[in-house]
Write a structure and sequence with these properties.
The protein has a four-stranded antiparallel β-sheet, with helices on one face. The chain has a three-stranded parallel β-sheet with strand order 4-3-5, with helices on both faces. The protein contains eight helices and nine strands. Helix 2 crosses helix 8. By secondary structure, it is of the alpha/beta class. The protein is globular and about 55 Å long.
């Protein structure tokens, strides 16, 4: 077990960490017990009853949170011609084609999200082994491969988050900052919870949502009743 700091242990004593809370109560506990000197990120984790080894039980996508995440993301767009101009006008920090591919091959990763027009994917595909492990590869399922560059960039800037079930069937998603008002965190939480519920694979067996936990960057997890997640 990792050694925990005094603030973490104090926060752990401030609530019943075995209880199952309503979503609003859980978020309130997280906000109250966030003691770090910086504005911590609030994250929710859904443990799902799925087997991601099977293609028909993999869950992946993206959703725009109504109140954003509190973090400004740096966007790279792989595009040429008019689409490159469109990307710049939409607010993308970096825009390019083969030049950007070469820059990344040389070790540059100064961006948070990559977007590509479909005609660029043949070129961007060369970066699969570099971008894939970092979760930065453009993907049609998350809306980052599109000719609608303006929309793709603006959605990312507005608070679009990607979600993906890992090997253990867990989805981790940031829903804002501790400084957010309670109702804004709740609205963001509800948005992702509804998306996760709708994404239930037909092949999933037994109880779909096994557990839900909300926490801040430095704080302990607070359990949400998996039968009342929305």
């Amino acid at each position: 077990m990792p050694k925990r700091g005094k603030k973490y242990l104090d926060a752990l004593k401030a609530f019943d960490n075995q209880a199952l809370y309503e979503p609003t109560e859980a978020i309130g506990v997280v906000k109250t017990n966030a003691k770090a000197k910086f504005d911590e990120t609030v994250e929710v984790a859904f443990k799902l009853g799925i087997d991601t080894r099977h293609a028909d039980q993999q869950i992946r996508g993206a959703v725009v949170l109504p109140h954003g995440t509190g973090k400004t993301l740096t966007v790279l767009v792989f595009a040429k011609g008019e689409k490159a101009k469109e990307a710049e006008a939409a607010g993308a920090e970096f825009v390019g084609a083969e030049d950007m591919v070469e820059k990344i091959q040389q070790g540059w990763f100064g961006f948070d999200v990559a977007v590509a027009t479909p005609d660029m994917m043949g070129t961007v595909g060369k970066l699969g082994k570099l971008l894939g492990p970092k979760g930065l590869m453009p993907n049609p399922k998350t809306g980052t491969v599109s000719f609608d560059v303006d929309r793709a960039v603006k959605e990312i800037k507005a608070g679009k988050v990607e979600y993906r079930a890992d090997k253990a069937g867990i989805i981790h998603v940031p829903i804002g900052k501790v400084s957010f008002e309670q109702d804004k965190l709740m609205a963001n939480y509800k948005t992702i919870a509804e998306v996760v519920m709708k994404a239930k694979p037909a092949a999933a067996k037994g109880q779909y949502v096994r557990s839900v936990t909300v926490s801040s960057t430095m704080g302990p997890g607070v359990k949400i009743n998996p039968l009342k997640i929305v």
